[in-house]
Amino acid sequence: MTAPSFAALTAGMSLTSLRHGTLPWSVGWLGAVAAVMLLTPFWGIGLMGALLWMAITSIALTVRELRTTED
């Protein structure tokens, strides 16, 4: 039940980051792949990818915020 909604969240954030460049392009594409995998019968693999994507996104945003506060 949660896979389609998590896929929508992951896809939306990935497309936004690819469009506006808020995250590195590799993070955006990883999220897009994870979103597609969440909609397949192998959603367990997609869930692991989406959780990995969420961790990488959190780290990238935290590092970017720390760099801007130091300046």
What does it look like?
With 71 residues, the chain is mainly alpha-helical. 86% of the residues lie in helices and 0% in strands. The chain contains three helices and no strands. α1 (2-20) packs antiparallel against α2 (25-38), α1 (2-20) crosses α3 and α2 packs antiparallel against α3 (43-70). It is elongated.
Estimated helix fraction: over 70%
Work out the strand percent: under 5%
Radius of gyration: 13 Å
Number of strands: 0
Number of helices: 3
Protein traits:
71 residues, mainly alpha, 0% strand
Concise structural overview:
With 71 residues, the chain is mainly α. It has helices at residues 2-20, 25-38, 43-70.
Question: Could you outline the blueprint of secondary structure elements for this entry?
Answer:
Layout: H1 2-20, H2 25-38, H3 43-70
Helix pairs in contact: 1-2, 1-3, 2-3
